[in-house]
Design goal:
This protein has 402 residues and is mainly alpha-helical. It has 17 helices and no strands. Helix 5 runs parallel beside helix 7 and helix 6 packs antiparallel against helix 7. It is globular. The N terminus is likely disordered.
């Protein structure tokens, strides 16, 4: 008796063949495009249009701290009802309303209130898509399923590559309010590629129809992994805040060179994401996470010590490697650590970037004032080292042999 070889369908083919995967890919590109267009411009909007001080504009980013709470509540509701795509659409509409409200704000307090109360739902839309994809993958097992998640996640990263450029161009040629309205339109347009698709009943019944809100003990592995991810991600707001200043004011790089250094990371990330999935099948997902976190440590050491264009390019390439791993595999690990309530797992993981941004912003501000540039980058290097140690400890646990 001979065993037939397992046929591994390419991830891109699986993605194109499924209306859900295909629609989610386009939806997440639109999500990344809209949000990343607005993110670099929101402080300018608050200062130039509503008269905020620079310090008050900086506090706007703290309004995202409500996102983990909103994400958890939406995820819990999704796990109890299975209405992944229905909740996704509600969250997308809420995001549209929130960005529209900010675009038409006439008082300084309005964007802060809208962001804290409404925009948290926009982020929850992403986690609901990943939960729906998980259900479909569980219902249709295939050796290439992990690659589908990577393809969909690459679309989100692609939106983040295009968005800042598109947002700057639109704001320069129209106005900041028009640019924010465009973000609102992109947020609402997420629902179009999925049409009237509903959560497949069979997919839901085979995974989580009997799920309930998980206890704290069941969530400990997920919370531990998410906390370590926050330590890795905290370096991003520090880098985006201070690396351009360091390059332009201390190293006196021309704008073209600075832009090339900043822009190379997402390109490396997109290229490495499918390779990360292949590598994880050979060495193990958690082991690869350790390597990814170590890349992040090396990147920040390059930022802090080299002082040359070559060194900063090397740091950005290493950082692209770190996010190539975490972007492709992070959501997969989170769902596997809480498999009975994947919407909750997805929401906790996706919304944790808000906590990381707050941590990074606070640590960066204190570090820049006390250590100066470029030594401030030693702070995310130290945080990343703690993440490497923690992820290595999780890798040794048989319960987390992913």
């Amino acid at each position: 008796m001979t065993l037939e070889p397992v046929v591994r369908t390419p991830a891109w083919r699986l993605t194109l063949a499924s209306p859900l995967y295909r629609g989610a890919t386009i939806a997440l590109f639109l999500s990344g495009l809209g949000f990343s267009a607005a993110a670099p411009q929101i402080a300018s909007f608050l200062v130039n249009e509503l008269g905020a001080s620079l310090s008050a504009a900086g506090l706007f980013y703290l309004t995202s701290l409500t996102a983990p709470v909103i994400g958890y509540l939406v995820g819990s509701r999704s796990d109890r009802t299975g209405a992944r795509l229905g909740l996704f659409r509600i969250c997308a509409v809420a995001g549209f309303a929130g960005w529209t409200g900010i675009a038409f704000s006439t008082q300084l307090w309005m964007p802060y209130l809208i962001s804290a109360v409404v925009l948290g739902f926009a982020g929850a839309a992403t986690s609901q898509l990943f939960a729906a994809i998980h259900d479909e993958l569980e219902a249709h097992p295939n050796p290439g399923n992990d690659g589908v998640v990577a393809v969909v996640r690459m679309a989100l990263t692609g939106g983040w590559v295009v968005g800042p450029v598109a947002g700057s161009f639109l704001a320069a040629h129209t106005s900041l309010r028009i640019m924010l309205l465009a973000t609102a339109i992109c947020t609402l347009a997420q629902v179009l590629p999925l049409g009237v698709l509903r959560t497949p009943p069979k997919a839901w019944s085979t995974t989580e129809s009997s799920s309930r809100r998980p206890g704290i003990r069941a969530m400990v592995p997920l919370l531990a992994f998410t906390a370590l991810y926050v330590l890795v991600y905290a370096g991003e707001p520090i880098k985006y805040a201070y690396l351009p200043i360091y390059m332009n004011e201390q190293l006196d790089f021309p704008s073209g060179l600075s832009g090339a250094i900043i822009g190379i990371q997402p390109l490396v990330e997109i290229v490495l994401m499918p390779l990360a999935v292949l590598a994880a099948r050979r060495v193990g997902t958690m082991r690869l996470m350790v390597v990814g976190a170590a890349f992040g440590v090396g990147a920040n050491i390059c930022f802090a010590t080299t002082g040359t264009a070559a060194g900063l390019f090397a740091g950005q390439i290493l950082m692209g490697g770190a996010w190539g791993v975490f972007a492709a595999l992070g959501i997969i690990v989170a769902q596997r650590l809480l498999p009975t309530t994947v919407a909750t797992a997805s929401a906790v993981f996706v919304s944790s970037t808000a906590l990381a941004s707050a941590l990074g912003g606070a640590a960066g501000g204190i570090g820049a004032a006390t250590l100066g540039l470029p030594q401030v980058f030693l702070i995310p290097a130290a945080l990343g080292l703690f993440a490497v140690i923690g992820l290595a400890a999780m890798t040794r646990s048989a319960a987390h042999n992913l």
